[in-house]
Write a structure and sequence with these properties.
The chain is of the alpha/beta class. The protein contains 9 helices and 15 strands. It folds into 2 domains: 1-112 and 323-402, 3-Layer(aba) Sandwich (Rossmann fold); 120-322, RecF/RecN/SMC, N-terminal domain (Glutathione S-transferase Yfyf (Class Pi), Chain A, domain 2, Up-down Bundle).
């Protein structure tokens, strides 16, 4: 699929912007802080139901405005689709698909994007939550129904934690909490599905990530991914859990559901003591390895980058293989500045056959030639010039941005 036109009203630092987009590469160039990431963030929002930078919707609405509107015209197989989202300060958001009212959370079914960003290095170096979010984003795109399961799990987890906290406060100890049993059942049912889907996804990603790593790094460093499951005793969020690496290799016995239920029963006294749920997909992780060593703490800067890029590229390949609506739109936000020459060229080469690729850069020269076919300049929340397509230039109404 591809986005043919993007229209923003009072979104981030844009008052009003209209951008025509081509198939293939589209490059947005501008100095720091001008609105390049904001522009692509609007598409990330439509395709994932949220910003990748903040959970706060109000940040999307231009300072001083009451609502932001994102409008994207899409095209797939000669068919056009119009997605519209209005983000309201202080009231619920509204969405439309082809001008018919829709639920905002249904928009991601129509648009799929894969975002590459400098923050992706945290997949290798960061905390487990970053890796969980990566897997869940891909899960929701690969199987949209799972977005609902993930949201339900979050809700159950919050309720259960509240209950544990109040039980702790009132001094109730194990066994005497029948309400907790009801929440345990929900937690285990929803959580087991998430655990199984994540494990399956890691499996499906194995080959695409290996190929992508090779494509980006030019070496075969045998990248591996190993789920670390709290239902099997791993505690990756607890520092100094030295056993957690080993536990990832253990062959678990019984269904996820059985192991989860057993862990919940086993941990109940500790959970009542601490007032928080200690087992479930919210406490899991996935271990990345290169050349037989953990990537975190061992891989070089360049190797870590190659792994991060491979995770995104591998995900994009997987979504492309599964999709009925064509390729995901690839968004490469500011990544070329982070890479050496050879990785730049290799990445550009690896993404060249995707239906649409959006690239942002502060410095034009950082971006390989083959991605510069269409270049659009961004300055202070305005699309000020499309090098090869004057029709795309918005006529400035205020001060002349040149
Ligand atoms: N809700 C908002 N209202 C007005 N301005 C905003 C809003 N949110 C963000 N901005 C402004 O948008 C600018 C950041 O834009 P953006 O992140 O897109 O920059 P960029 O072009 O990607 O820069 P860089 O090259 O540094 O990544 C900042 O100046 C910020 O203050
Ligand atoms: Mg940026």
């Amino acid at each position: 699929m591809r986005v043919t036109h993007l229209s923003l009203t009072d979104f981030r630092n844009y008052g009003r912007a209209e951008v025509e987009l081509d198939g293939g590469p589209n490059l947005f160039v501008g100095s720091n802080g001008q609105g390049k990431t904001n522009l692509v963030e609007s598409l990330v929002y439509l395709s994932t139901g949220g910003s990748h930078r903040t959970p706060v919707d109000a940040a999307m609405v231009r300072q001083g405005a009451q609502a932001a509107v994102i409008r994207a015209r899409l095209e797939h197989d000669g068919r056009a689709l119009l997605l519209e989202l209005q983000l309201n300060r202080g009231s619920v958001n509204k969405a439309m698909v082809n001008r018919a009212p829709a639920r905002p959370r249904d928009l991601p079914r129509h648009l799929s994007t894969v975002l590459f960003a400098p923050e992706d290095l945290a997949f290798v170096r960061g905390e487990p939550s970053v890796r969980r979010r990566l897997l869940d984003t891909v899960l929701a795109q690969r199987t949209p129904r799972l977005a609902g399961v993930l949201a339900d799990y979050d809700r159950v987890l919050r309720q259960r934690n509240t209950l544990l906290k109040s039980a702790r406060a009132s001094g109730v100890r194990g066994g005497g909490l029948s309400t907790l049993d009801v929440w345990d059942e929900r937690l285990v049912t929803l959580g087991s599905e998430i655990v199984d889907e994540r494990v399956a996804l890691v499996d499906e990603l194995r080959e695409p990530v290996r190929e992508a790593y090779h494509a980006v790094a030019g070496d075969d460093h045998d990248p591996r991914m190993l789920p670390l499951l709290s239902v099997d005793g791993a505690a990756p969020d607890d520092e100094h859990d030295e056993a957690h690496e080993r536990r990832g290799d253990v062959d678990a016995v019984g269904t996820t559901r059985d192991r989860f239920a057993a862990a919940v029963a086993r941990l109940r006294p500790r959970e009542l003591e601490r007032g928080v749920t200690l087992v479930g997909p919210h406490r899991d992780d996935v271990l990345f390895r290169l050349n037989g060593l953990p990537a975190k703490g061992y891989a070089s800067h360049g190797e870590s980058w190659s792994f991060a890029l491979a995770l995104r590229l591998g995900s994009a390949q997987l979504l492309r293989a599964r999709s009925t609506t064509g390729d995901p739109v690839l968004i490469l936000d500011d990544v070329f500045a982070e890479l050496d020459r050879s990785r730049r060229a290799r990445l550009a080469h690896a993404v060249r056959d995707f239906e649409q690729v959006l690239v942002t850069a502060a410095v034009l020269e950082d971006v390989p030639e083959e991605l510069r076919a269409r270049t659009v300049h961004i300055r202070a929340g305005r699309v000020v010039a499309g090098d090869d397509d004057p029709a795309a230039v918005e006529s400035p109404t205020g001060a002349d941005p040149a």
